[in-house]
């Protein structure tokens, strides 16, 4: 590898390689700027900021109303400074803003004020194996439930509900459970949860609870090791699939 010096590894990098090794090369090794940002990505990250702002205020003992959360969404969207956002599936800026208001309202209604927020955007670094650069991540949210159970939460927006299998095998949650261990939490006394805001016609917030075993964490480490090994050997190939429709590196890929 030449251009990009990789000093750490992350779930995003791992997921990108698993989705398409050539895209990984264009994005992380050749450092080619994306031709556009998908509206779904910009939308998801702006909603995420609105929810994060809500939790930050909650930690300070205050609360944000849905209209104030929408202000945060707007600022996050506008802070893209005109970066080329490309819309798909008939979405537009205004329809997404309306959807954002529906989602933050649904989130607001589902929030349980009895839950204690222990941390937000908690950074972790862990050495999975000697051959892989340090693994970095940020845990969206750490909660203490009224029943006294610590819960690690990943917040997401999605186009549809998740299946049981998707929850059970979600690699980001496995990475979070490893990160939680690195932060000193006892993995035997830890719940994991995906809080998913679905941007369907009637938006919903669904909480999916799950756990991870040592065997799943070991498998994750093995997977990361093999992916990193493939990266070091410059094993690049296009993996054409449904995700190509919205790939911001498609033009460069076509010349491969
Ligand atoms: S267009 Fe598809 S195959 Fe090409 S880099 Fe993007 S995701 Fe990979």
Structure description:
- This protein has 256 residues and is α/β, with parallel strands linked by helices.
- It has a single domain (9-247), classed as Lambda Exonuclease, Chain A (Alpha-Beta Complex), CATH 3.90.320.
- The chain is 44% helix and 20% strand.
- The chain is built from 9 helices and 8 strands.
- Strands 1, 4, 5, 6, 7 and 8 form a 6-stranded mixed sheet that branches. Strands 2-3 form a two-stranded parallel sheet.
- A hairpin with a 5-residue loop joins strand 7 (190-198) and strand 8 (204-210).
- Helix 1 crosses helix 2 and helix 3 (39-59) packs parallel to helix 5 (93-110).
- The chain is globular and about 50 Å long.
- The model has no long low-confidence stretch (mean pLDDT 92).
- It binds iron/sulfur cluster.
- Residues 20, 22-23, 238-240, 243-244, 247, 249-250, 253 line the site of iron/sulfur cluster.
């Amino acid at each position: 590898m030449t251009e990009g010096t990789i000093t750490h590894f992350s779930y995003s990098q791992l997921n990108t390689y698993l989705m398409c090794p050539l895209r990984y090369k264009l994005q992380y090794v050749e450092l080619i700027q994306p031709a556009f940002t998908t509206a779904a990505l910009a939308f998801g990250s702006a909603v995420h900021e609105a929810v994060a702002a809500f939790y930050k205020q909650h930690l300070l003992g205050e609360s944000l109303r849905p209209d104030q959360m929408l202000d945060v969404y707007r600022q996050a969207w506008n802070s893209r400074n005109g970066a080329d956002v490309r819309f798909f599936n008939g979405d537009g800026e205004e329809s997404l803003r309306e959807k954002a208001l529906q989602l933050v309202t649904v989130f607001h209604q589902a929030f349980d004020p009895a839950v204690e927020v222990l941390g937000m955007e908690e950074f972790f670094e862990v050495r999975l194996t000697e051959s892989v650069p340090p693994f970095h991540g940020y845990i969206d949210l750490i909660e203490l439930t009224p029943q006294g159970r610590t819960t690690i939460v990943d917040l997401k927006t999605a186009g549809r509900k998740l299946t049981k299998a998707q929850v059970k095998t979600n690699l980001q949650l496995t990475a979070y459970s490893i990160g939680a261990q690195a932060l000193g939490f006892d993995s035997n006394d830890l719940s994991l949860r995906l809080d998913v805001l679905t941007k369907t016609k009637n938006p919903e917030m669904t909480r999916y609870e799950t756990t991870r075993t040592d065997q799943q964490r070991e498998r994750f480490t093995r997977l990361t090791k093999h992916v990193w090994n493939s990266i070091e050997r410059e094993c690049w190939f296009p993996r054409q699939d449904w995700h190509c429709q919205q790939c911001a590196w498609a033009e460069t890929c076509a010349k491969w």
